[in-house]
Amino acid sequence: VPEPATRTGLVAGLDIGGTKTLGVAIDGEGRLRASVLLPTVVGGHDHLLSSAVDALTRLGDRAGVGRSGFSAVGVGVPGVVEPATGRVRNAVNLGIADASVPLGEHLAAVADVPVAVDNDVNAAALGTAASLPGIDDLAYLSVGTGIAAGFVFGGRLRRGRRGLTGEIGHLPLDPSGPICDCGQRGCLEASASGPVIARRWPVADGVGPAVALVNAAVSGDAAAREILDDVVAHLALAVTLLALSVDPDVVVLGGGVAEAGTPLLDAVRAAVRRRSEIAVLGAVDLPDRLMLVPAGVPVGALGAAYLAGATVMAGEPEADVVGP
Ligand SMILES: [Zn+2]
């Protein structure tokens, strides 16, 4: 076990999701040096803290530095995060509703390392930017359990005043759309999120709902095609919204639904192209600026490491760091 004060130059990134936690250790050149994948133990406050400590401990062991040997640790979680303190709330997929969990402080105290915490979409946006050299401005559109966007401008994460930036999933864009879980009618999320796709196109366990839907549509199933067209229309609307709001170099499609891959990307591009026939979007090549998150790159965990200062982009931590 290394002395607590001995920092190795390795930075850890943890991407804590509703079903699994991925941890990566990266060195000063941004190279991946170790990784772990564990099931997330969901069930509230204590489980979140112990899942994070467990993942960091195993990652430290695998990297050969111990959990206190990292120079910093970044964590991405699907919830509302107060970056200055690393406290997490409203992480419904982790079984945390009203409580505010001191994830940053706890991890910093237990592992004796500096810790930065942010929401998972921000972390993934940063990880995506880091894995796309030459692209400084991007909007990362996460389509998974929910729909939200993260923004990197000039190589830096754009969080906004209250961390609300990019929460477009509950924009009620469709007055004739279905009622959303939030109570409004016609939210983007009510038509195109992963769980909604799974409800509209039920499949056996083991296959992602978007993958199954796209496969069925491509093989000629008319009902699947109709649902896919509707999902795609909503995603195209989200892409257009991002382009008209912030005009990034690229809009990157990520999250579980994006695992449907190229057929989904092509369909969204075609729908965006049809929307682009309106004058203001006609000349901006929006369909060509739409891309999938790089295959096989753990952008959430990588981005979490970049949050904590493993940055080769800006040279300083992207997030507030909590003790020690
Ligand atoms: Zn809603």
Topology:
Blueprint: E1 11-16, E2 20-26, E3 32-39, H1 45-63, E4 72-77, E5 80-82, E6 87-89, H2 103-111, E7 115-119, H3 120-130, E8 138-143, E9 147-153, E10 156-158, H4 189-192, H5 194-200, H6 209-218, H7 222-246, E11 250-254, H8 262-275, H9 279-282, E12 290-292, H10 299-307
Parallel strand pairs: 1-4, 4-7, 8-11, 11-12
Antiparallel strand pairs: 1-2, 2-3, 5-6, 8-9, 9-10
The structure holds zinc ion.
Characterise this structure.
There is one protein chain. With 324 residues, this protein is α/β, with parallel strands linked by helices. The protein has helices at residues 45-63, 103-111, 120-130, 189-192, 194-200, 209-218, 222-246, 262-275, 279-282, 299-307; strands spanning 11-16, 20-26, 32-39, 72-77, 80-82, 87-89, 115-119, 138-143, 147-153, 156-158, 250-254, 290-292. Strands 3-2-1-4-7 form a five-stranded mixed β-sheet. The chain is globular. The chain starts with 10 loop residues before the first strand and ends in a 17-residue tail after the last helix. Residues 1-6 and 311-315 have low confidence and may be disordered. The structure holds zinc ion. Zinc ion binds next to helix 4.
